[in-house]
Amino acid sequence: MFKRFISLEWKQFRRASYFQKGMAIKILLFLAVLYFGGAALMLGVGLFFIIKKAIPTVDPIQVVNNFLIYWFLFDLLIRYFMQQLPVMNVKPLMTIPVKRSTVIHYLLGKTSVSFFNFLPLFVFVPFSIVLLTQGYPVINVFCWFIAMVSMTFANNFINFLINKNNVAFYVILAILVTFVGLEYYGVFKASEPIGSAFNYLYNHSYLAILPILMAAGLYYVNFNFIKKGFYLDDAVSKKVKEVNATDLSWMNRFGAVAPFIKNDVKLIWRNVRPRQVMFMSFIFLFYGLMFYTQETYKNMPAFLAFASMFVTGGFLMTFGQLVPSWDSEYYKMLMSQNIPYKTYLQSKWYLMVFAVVISFILSTPYIYFGWDIFGMIAAGALFNIGLNSFITLYGGVLNRVPVELNVKAKAFSNTNGFNPTQLLIALPKFLLPMLLFYVPYKLINFQAGIVALALSGVLGIVFRNVVFKKIEAVYQKGKYKTIAAFSEKK
Amino acid sequence: MITTSNLSKKYNESTVLNIENLEIPKGQSFGLVGNNGAGKTTYFSLLLDLIQPTTGHIENNGVMVHESENWKPFTSSFIDESFLIGYLTAEEYFYFIGELRGQKASDVDALLSQFEDFFHGEILDQKKYLRDLSKGNQKKAGIVAALIGEPEVIILDEPFANLDPTTQIRLKGIVKDLAEKKGVTVLISSHDLLHVTDVCERIVVLEKGEVIKDLKTSEATLKELEAHFSKVAEV
Questions:
Q1: Tens-place pLDDT, residues A270-316
Q2: Helical segments of A207-300, H only
Q3: Which residues of A touch B72 (CB under 8 A)?
Q4: Domains plus CATH for chain B?
Q5: Does pTM top 0.90 for this prediction?
Q6: Which domain does A181 fall in, by range?
Q7: Closest-CA residue in chain A for B70?
């Protein structure tokens, strides 16, 4: 039976529209996978030596063990938002003689072959090999490795549970918040005993059985959970959500664009995919930390300009690049309704501006890195509002990929909004702020660079009506193509 | 009201629609019938400027449909579920359409109150998103949304499909009322010959993209249509 399921899956994969896309995208995807895999591999190989150099007094494996808990928590967080869980098409299977348990085993097995389970292997395998070459005892390393893999799978199944079961989600959330809170205020550092537990596990190899049991136990819990709800109207199939309506009438003050903004807020709030984008754009806020903390970039202010643009531009770029696509499910209606294109575009612009402003407010802690940096973030925000937003909107029209709103994006099998044109349009978004900053910086000084970057945005805001007209014309021109592309079956 | 001249649509050399001349006067209830692939939806899509004509044009109340957007304020339509916004509740959707068509919330409420019968208590106050409604109920919501804002032209593609018998009968009443009392031009396509002949004053039969019959509805129309389509079946 399993063999047949797999052949069905294979057909689904082969015949899916994204697979029939151009060679260029496949190559790009392959490169992306290679990049992430490679990065993980490098980390795995280099980790030991990096730690050894940084903290020579402590055994690297101990350091790793102490930090493992954060790794797994982060892993879980990323999974919760990114990992697409299999919603198997159970309807046709329910009426034919296949044992339920077979289907469920298969379903759970399928979650195990996720990219998110392989990525950790790319780190743990080379790290373990390095450990072995450094003369660590084989039994200990091997058992430790098995334990890590089991933990990864345990995470995989926890994620399945919390995605499908609200109670499990809130219980785990509550536990996490409590421990993080205790840790943060220094009441009780849970990470220390957990760290020593991992160390203990490493030193007493037979204990590797515990994570294995944990993974197996979670598998069992999942199995029962699905089995209980193996009916069309339950866990495995789509869930009908109760409406949570909020009164947004206060937004009416935005005038002509109000109906669209209200709609977009609902769009983001009520659909899985845009929510995911929201989460992603929140991560962008921390982008600056990667750059401002590094000594190397201190002397490369152009990169700082780039990072500063990113800090406030997360939502703008992730949401904005899919601008007409968000409405792809009902685009025909919008096009036959009494809507001027300009108002539609303006409403999206306001939304992006709003997001930039919010991100800017949230970025105030960066003042810690000095006013120069914060000035740069402010200039980056202006650039985002006045220029980047328009480039993004312009790029959107070239991106005619329908988006399924209520389906999570799959990691690396989702080419929505990921095509060569999109990449081309992304280039000016990255290069422009660097250039706008770097030239005056080289010619005059740091402040001049900031002013130039900010000025570019102000210019865009001043001339926005002209720009809107231009973009509107482009959208109008591509209208039929866009409608045709959006009504293609997925 | 709606004038179609020399209209054709080709996809890679295969002609899917070719209408030399078709006049639909104001206030007419106009029915379009034909088998699958006859070009009904293509014609409606051209009317709404969702696809580009290969040749010719449609004029809606003096506005060239593929050149100007000025036909939008007085034209409304429901073609398929992709006209619904899945993540809204029915009420939110109605108000959204109302806002687009310059209607106050109270205007929309007044209109909706006329359709309580039609909704049969399954649309309003449901605490459900449109995407979670059944096909038939989605259709009800879409049809009523097309009536918001006092349009002069209403285009409904297969409005009777997926509806339960009671609702079909009510819908017929609504459509008749629109054309006769309010002077609205209603365009309907359907596979159900009985329904169209009941509702429409005029019926046009499309076959392979061409108009092959243009009938003024009378007692004999249903028979004639049935005879025609059974003949098609035999050939």
A1: 888 888 888 888 888 888 887 888 777 777 888 888 888 888 988 98
A2: 209-228, 258-270, 272-284, 287-292, 295-298
A3: 336-339
A4: 2-234 (3.40.50.300)
A5: no
A6: 2-228
A7: A338
